[in-house]
Write a structure and sequence with these properties.
Layout (H helix, E strand, L loop, with lengths): L7 E4 L8 E5 L9 H12 L3 E5 L2 H5 L9 H18 L4 E6 L1 H11 L7 E5 L24 E6 L7 H8 L6 E6 L13 H16 L1
Parallel strand pairs: 2-3, 2-4, 4-5, 5-6, 6-7
Antiparallel strand pairs: 1-3
Helix pairs in contact: 1-6, 3-4
């Protein structure tokens, strides 16, 4: 298996990689989202091999949301993590934005792929305006260190709701609050990629 098999693009560090990071996109996006590009640049600057990749539904068609593709998308995430394990000898961090992060967390909860940490951006706790439709049932089965990077104005879940959800995870967790940001995590004042990578490295260091 290689990067082409997962429609992946690698951001390579200057020296020997400390580990591998694989990140994927939200429901309407692709591997080319500006957020993913900036986060992968940040990981590479810290000495990690960072890969942003397309989920299977996005490989099939260039636009539009996923449709009944959760099983195949999760299988694609398992492939990406397995590839990540073969690329370096260091730890593997996996995750993504919104839908991509949620699917990755479900793969890890099901023990279908082994990762050393999860990095989840704008985790979609529920559809906007429908808090009763929580997407948290699998979280208690996650035992790896998990970082949630989340905007305080995200309609898919408030910071308070996220704190409650994060408490379900048995592994260590950290919430990186991006003040004023919505679901796209845009911020004119905060360096979102740096804050997210800092948190992930803290949890990895604590776990090692």
């Amino acid at each position: 298996m290689n990067l082409d098999d997962i429609a992946g693009i690698a951001h390579e560090p200057a020296g020997k990689p400390r580990g591998t990071v694989v990140l994927t996109h939200g429901a309407g996006g692709s591997r080319d989202s500006p957020l993913l590009q900036k986060i992968c640049d940040e990981w590479a600057a810290r000495g990690w091999l960072a890969v942003r990749y397309n989920l299977p539904y996005r490989r099939r068609r260039p636009k539009g949301p996923p449709s009944n593709s959760a099983a195949t998308d999760q299988a694609g995430i398992v492939e990406a993590v397995e590839l990540a394990r073969s690329l370096t000898k260091g730890p593997v961090v996996a995750g993504g934005h919104s839908y991509g992060g949620r699917m990755t967390s479900m793969v890890v909860a099901d023990d279908a792929a082994k990762v050393d940490a999860l990095s989840l951006f704008s985790y979609p706790l529920h559809p906007p305006g429908k808090p009763e439709r929580a997407r948290t049932e699998h979280l208690p089965r996650i035992s790896v260190p998990t970082v949630f990077t989340h905007g305080t104005a995200d309609p898919f879940g408030s910071i308070d709701e996220l704190r409650t959800a994060a408490a379900l995870i048995s592994g260590t967790t950290e919430i990186v609050e991006i003040n004023g940001a919505r679901h796209d995590l845009g911020s004119k004042t905060l360096n979102v990629p740096a804050l997210a990578v800092d948190a992930a490295l803290r949890l990895l260091d604590a776990a090692s």
